[in-house]
Design a protein that fits this description.
This protein is of the alpha+beta class. It contains six helices and seven strands; from the N terminus they run E-H-H-H-H-E-E-E-H-E-H-E-E. It has helices spanning 12-21, 23-27, 35-39, 41-54, 99-113, 129-137; strands at 3-6, 58-63, 69-76, 83-90, 119-125, 141-148, 151-159. Strands 1-2-3-4-5-7-6 form a seven-stranded mixed beta sheet, with helices on both faces.
């Protein structure tokens, strides 16, 4: 079972491999990151670590025993009110195994116990039922309809206890 880890500098090569290997797969449900993401990866990765050090983001990776990244679960845009946006993605070869549900549960618990957060936010398009199920299995409730990347979507919230 992959382990959830807070992002570290030595994760960079595995995160880049994960993003490259799953680019087409991810683009079926979320907008493609674009070529610039890969061309500027080192600078973007360094920025993630800087946000983490500043306490505005908590990026996590799911890492197998051999060091392969098979998922990412991030808390971003931490607000002074104790809320943050949740985002996640699981590698195609690891999808459907319950990893997203378990990883989101673990990050939700960390948000409450280690990061001092009280509310998580998430957004998902209606054409991504698996992601909606992950949220709902983890106590997220729909709060508003919206358009996300030109598609009908729902905004979710989770009150942390």
């Amino acid at each position: 079972m992959p382990r959830l880890q807070l992002l570290r500098p030595d994760h960079a090569p595995a995160v880049l491999a994960f993003e490259r290997e799953n680019r087409a797969y991810f683009a079926t449900s979320v907008p493609d990151r674009g070529d610039a993401f890969f061309a500027e990866f080192d600078a973007r990765f360094a920025q993630l670590l800087a946000y983490q050090a500043a306490g505005t983001d908590y990026p996590h990776v799911l890492v197998t025993a051999d060091g392969e990244v098979v998922g990412r679960v991030n808390l971003i845009e931490v607000d002074a009110d104790g809320s943050a946006e949740l985002g996640y993605r699981i590698a195609q070869k690891a999808a459907g195994q319950g990893l997203a549900t378990a990883a989101v549960r673990e990050v939700r618990d960390l948000a409450a116990t280690s990061y001092g957060l009280v509310t998580l936010r998430a957004r998902v398009t209606h054409d991504n039922p698996a992601s909606r199920a992950v949220l709902e299995h983890n106590g997220f409730v729909p709060v508003a309809a919206l358009t996300l990347n030109g598609k009908p979507a729902t905004s979710y919230r989770c009150a942390l206890e």
